[in-house]
Amino acid sequence: MKTMTCQQLGGACDLEFNADTFEEMAEMSKKHGMDMFQKKDAAHLKAMNDMRSLMKTPEDMTNWFDKKRKEFDALPNNN
């Protein structure tokens, strides 16, 4: 199991996500982002807008996910 924070995944806070795979991590981050969007959390809304500007093309999105997956893979396991 590995740990990444909301901020490490492009978000706005230090909430930690723990997952065995990057896909699980991304899903937790997505759910958290949707929760924060519904709550109209200003910091997270800004982070989402920043992410949107980074991901203007499908290639940009793929590159971002590949970079984050490599960061995840390089993390030590929490045993």
Helix and strand layout, with pairings?
Elements: E1 2-5, E2 16-19, H1 22-38, H2 42-54, H3 58-74
Give an overview in words.
There is one protein chain. The chain is mainly alpha-helical and about 80 residues long. It has helices at about 20-40, 40-55, 60-75, and strands at about 1-5, 15-20. It has one domain. The chain has three helices and two strands; from the N terminus they run E-E-H-H-H. The protein has a two-stranded antiparallel ribbon. The longest helix is centred in the middle third of the chain and has 17 residues, at about 20-40.
Strand order, largest beta sheet: 1-2
Helix and strand run: EEHHH
Shape: globular
Largest sheet: 2 strands, antiparallel
Strand content: 5-15%
What is the helix fraction of residues, given as a range? 55-70%
Tally of discrete structural domains: 1
Number of helices: 3
Number of strands: 2
For the record, give the distance between the C-alpha atoms at the N and C termini, rounded to a whole number: 7 Å
Mind telling me the C-alpha Rg?
A: 13 Å
SS-derived structural category? mainly alpha
Question: If you average the pLDDT, what whole number results?
Answer: 94
Poorly predicted segments: none
